[in-house]
Amino acid sequence: MKKEIGDNISISKQDDEVLIKIINPLEGWQEMALLGWLVLWTSLGIYVTFYLFNAGLERDAYIFFIVYLSFWGYFEYKALHGYLFKKFGYELIKINKEKLLYKRSLFKRGKIKNYLRKNIKGFRLFEPSKKSFAAAYNKTFWTVGNEQIEFDYLGGKVSFGMHLEEKDARQLTVFLNRQLKTIR
Known about the structure:
A hairpin with a 5-residue loop joins strand 5 and strand 6. With 184 residues, this protein is of the alpha+beta class. The strands form two sheets. A six-stranded antiparallel sheet has the order 1-2-3-4-5-6. Strands 7-8-9 form a three-stranded antiparallel sheet. The relative contact order is 0.16. Helix content is 43%, strand content 30%.
């Protein structure tokens, strides 16, 4: 059985196993904006690095630029990872009789997390704090985050379903809860 929820969720079911693939691609203008920002940010870093090694700076200025480039490198990584994940990445959820497997995949690589089904306490929509800076930041299109669905697992919360529309997240939550009860 093959099924789709919205444009970004595909579900396939075989025997006692369900495989769910969630993509969250960028719209045309978002991809161009993020790519443009990434090119400019990379160019700035290359220029500052070139300046650092060719300007004959004093010790204090040299330390300043080293600290600056460490922050630059962090944001370069985050922007590049966000762009590549939006372009080539996806979330993969596999449910069988014993466990739920979850993987954030980029270029078919990623760490698989195992969750025993007997310890999963139902799926629900994620409710972020309305006044949280982190919640507001995660909703931006360039981040890898903004999970929409969560479940309780051994006293903690596990979330997934990045950048899903509320309607699609709600339908997927209903589907997952139904699968949790039917596959035994």
